[in-house]
Here is the input.
Amino acid sequence: MLHIVPEIDTSEALTERQKAVLDAALRLLVEEGDQLTMTAVARRASCSKETLYKWFGDRDGLLTATVQWQASKVRVAQVDGKGLDLASLTTSLERFASDWLKVISSDTSIALNRVAVSHAGSGKDNLGAVVLENGRFALATRLKPVLEAGRQAGLLDFSDAETAFRTFFGLVARDVQIRLLLGDRLELTEAAIGGDAARATQQFLALFKSNNRPQGL
Amino acid sequence: MLHIVPEIDTSEALTERQKAVLDAALRLLVEEGDQLTMTAVARRASCSKETLYKWFGDRDGLLTATVQWQASKVRVAQVDGKGLDLASLTTSLERFASDWLKVISSDTSIALNRVAVSHAGSGKDNLGAVVLENGRFALATRLKPVLEAGRQAGLLDFSDAETAFRTFFGLVARDVQIRLLLGDRLELTEAAIGGDAARATQQFLALFKSNNRPQGL
DNA sequence: AGCGAGCCGTACCGTACGTTACGGTTCGCC
DNA sequence: GGCGAACCGTAACGTACGGTACGGCTCGCT
Here is the structure.
């Protein structure tokens, strides 16, 4: 039987009750891991399974809606890139790095990425795309204008913003996300995150500062 | 019912037939993604389910054995660190980077990491630990002596080999693995891998070469 | 040849879960 | 008050799959 899912495709036409249901599903996902059964969601959200199916079509629809719902809530801070000097660029980069580390080490992000990775192995890949779109790609969209502004201000030197971003991404994230996804304990304290963000930023600046560019790149 | 798995714990007491079965399971894992049912493995390996249960205890045991079996086959090249000069250090690092990119972008690695990530969400975490142990941690074990040798030879300057390794790891892998796990198309040609390996190596050297160390680190 | 161990193929069981169906209740609206 | 839509709770159905049982075959050993 084919289902036409009503208004949950990409827009945000969610009633408060529906948001509450998705929040319950999200909590269940974070706490119970893979035990996200329709029965469990219905019980947790105090709603009927019939309602779940009417609203979200099938289990996949519920999963997708849940991921999109959480993704729509995670927004990395927008940064203004006007009148940039080195100090403000540094703090901007540190802030991005710190925010990103906090996001990827949060229980919610881990649970969401887990389910998206699992889902990517089986046929349709929408979940992975949604997670990437609202995570890594959203970060790139926010960060690139900062990098471009830094280049315009003569502070940074790079040929391709995407490449520069990916280097920054690698310096910040390193092996953190994959280790967390694979179940490695690796608690990141607030202080450690701050230190990592500062280190990554300094390394990035060392590689891309226009007056200190290493030869051979 | 409790099962005592015979001799499949950590050692390598596998008969040829058992290896063939695990190879079949591995192929199934890579090709079919999540459809790794006991029935499918038995059919693919032309063996009986009874044999699977006798050899591997239960589904988890089969999964673990499959992951360990593949992990035992992936060995990053050991590099000798004696009599190091900058050129040979550079080629060593490039080779490590290139090998690692090839590994994490292979279908087998993606499938294995997917199943391990899925598994990590549900209770026991052995699979994730096995993958990490034979992947990221094995790489660190192989690479650190090279870094140490580079430091002994006065070519590199760092205080902690682990930190230096993690930076190298980040510069090499960047966002590749998470994007692949999430189903992002991102084909890495041989040439692209070579270029990435060279770039990562140059960036790493720029950050850690002893005579060109950026201030503030 | 006779025997037993190991394994293949397959049928079978139990259960978990996705999905559907339905009676009862709440609530907005006329 | 009366009506209908939406929804809750729960029972029921179908199926897929993990796990078990069993008959038959091969093969090495004596």
